[in-house]
């Protein structure tokens, strides 16, 4: 038996994992907010926004876009291994629990995507999580290596092809705008009925996911989950103090490298090809830097204390993610305040920050009275059923 999966007497929550999740939710709402209040998938943002809004978008594009979903995906893989470890300690079937858990997440994702907001990530995580189960018997180092190969080889191939396209027949971001889609989105999300909004929401989800999207996720999301699962088997976060040199090296290398790749379109010309490279390569590299930096900070008791409110957000990550979508759509969609298309990017960004701060406060209040967030409670109940107490145990681990 792999020693990293040997049963343990007590498995407690790891605050660093919760801080990373809570921090990821900040980046997620900054990007998602743009989609809440504008037809983000249909226009060229560098033509759509002007003056101060354009400056704000540039900062988000460089430091946020594409850099937070890799962290969340790696944490998802990390959590799967912790559930596996817990199942072995409890003497019950990990496979049965994991499959049921992911199917419940899939159902939550379908409700979220089709009835709340089209930019759902839960469906993708559930499906990629089911694929991840096939790899969890692989030892940690090989799991990390396989994840890196599965990610890098396709991305380097695609990036090389896109560079050739850019050099010979570059497609400018100017050609990116979908006028018909933009007009439909603007009209329906600003003044349509709930049924019309739902129809448009489903159409937008299909556009983002069914036109080759899920195939790409196998090379974008699944590898990150594999890397996270491998790191969990090696206990890289639990033993962060022993691995501080590794985390420092990752931070010092990934931070400048990620920013450099993210800046390529600003020096070589904004094109669809270079934007792909910016997000697919620069985004995850910068995400690794953010994760490594936070892990290093969490080695300090002072920093851990300061970041404790962010950890509360991470403990309720599913609830808070869903809450962001509910609040965001109620503010902008016609069955709410109807502000779609009526706010600037700067206003939307400040609103995202305000919502996040309020969520941090609410998470602390909620967890002072309850053990888990409401969505987490429902998820566990539907996963474990009547045997929830016996199978889920009394000790908390970082499961999502």
What would you say about this model in short?
This protein has 20 helices and no strands. With 400 residues, the chain is mainly α.
Question: How are the SSEs placed, and which strands pair?
Answer:
Layout: H1 15-37, H2 45-48, H3 51-63, H4 69-90, H5 94-115, H6 122-132, H7 140-169, H8 179-191, H9 194-209, H10 213-220, H11 222-233, H12 244-262, H13 264-268, H14 272-297, H15 301-306, H16 308-315, H17 317-332, H18 345-367, H19 374-384, H20 388-392
Helix pairs in contact: 1-4, 1-16, 1-17, 1-18, 4-5, 4-11, 5-6, 5-19, 7-11, 7-14, 12-14, 16-18
Structure in words:
This protein is mainly alpha-helical and 400 residues long. It has one domain (3-8, 26-107, 121-197, 216-392). Helix content is 73%, strand content 0%. The chain has 20 helices and no strands. The protein has helices spanning 15-37, 45-48, 51-63, 69-90, 94-115, 122-132, 140-169, 179-191, 194-209, 213-220, 222-233, 244-262, 264-268, 272-297, 301-306, 308-315, 317-332, 345-367, 374-384, 388-392. Helix 5 packs antiparallel against helix 6 (122-132). It is globular and about 55 Å long.
């Amino acid at each position: 038996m792999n020693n990293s999966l040997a049963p343990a007497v007590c498995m407690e929550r790891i605050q660093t994992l919760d801080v990373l999740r809570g921090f990821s939710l900040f980046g997620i709402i900054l990007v998602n907010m743009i989609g809440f209040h504008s037809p983000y998938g249909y226009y060229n943002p560098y033509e759509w926004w002007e003056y101060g809004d354009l400056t704000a978008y540039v900062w988000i594009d460089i430091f946020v876009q594409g850099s937070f979903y890799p962290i969340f995906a790696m944490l998802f893989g990390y959590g799967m291994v912790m559930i596996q470890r817990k199942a072995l300690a409890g003497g019950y079937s990990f496979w049965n629990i994991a499959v049921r858990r992911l199917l419940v997440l899939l159902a939550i994702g379908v409700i979220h995507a089709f009835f709340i907001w089209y930019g759902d990530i839960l469906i993708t995580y559930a499906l990629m999580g089911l694929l991840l189960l096939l790899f969890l018997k692989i030892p940690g180092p090989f799991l990390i290596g396989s994840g890196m190969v599965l990610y890098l080889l396709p991305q380097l191939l695609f990036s090389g092809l896109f560079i050739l396209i850019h050099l010979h027949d570059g497609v400018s971001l100017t050609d990116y705008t979908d006028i018909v889609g933009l007009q439909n989105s603007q009209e329906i999300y600003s003044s349509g009925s709930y049924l019309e909004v739902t129809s448009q929401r489903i159409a937008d989800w299909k556009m983002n996911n069914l036109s080759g999207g899920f195939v790409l996720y196998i090379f974008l999301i699944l590898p990150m989950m594999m890397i996270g699962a491998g790191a969990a088997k090696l206990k890289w976060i639990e033993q962060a103090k022993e691995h501080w040199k590794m985390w420092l090296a990752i931070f010092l290398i990934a931070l400048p490298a990620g920013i450099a790749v993210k800046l390529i379109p600003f020096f070589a010309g904004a094109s669809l090809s270079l934007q792909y490279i910016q997000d697919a390569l620069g985004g995850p590299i910068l995400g690794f830097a953010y994760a490594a930096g936070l892990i290093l900070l969490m080695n300090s008791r002072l920093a851990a204390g300061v970041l404790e409110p962010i950890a509360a957000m991470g403990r309720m990550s599913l609830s808070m993610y869903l809450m962001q979508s509910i609040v965001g759509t109620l503010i902008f969609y016609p069955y709410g305040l109807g502000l779609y298309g009526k706010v600037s990017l700067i206003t939307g960004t400040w609103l995202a920050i305000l919502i996040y701060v309020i969520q941090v406060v609410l998470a602390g209040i909620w967890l002072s009275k309850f053990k888990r967030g409401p969505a987490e409670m429902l998820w566990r109940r539907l996963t474990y059923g009547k045997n929830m107490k016996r199978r889920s145990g009394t000790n908390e681990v970082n499961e999502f």
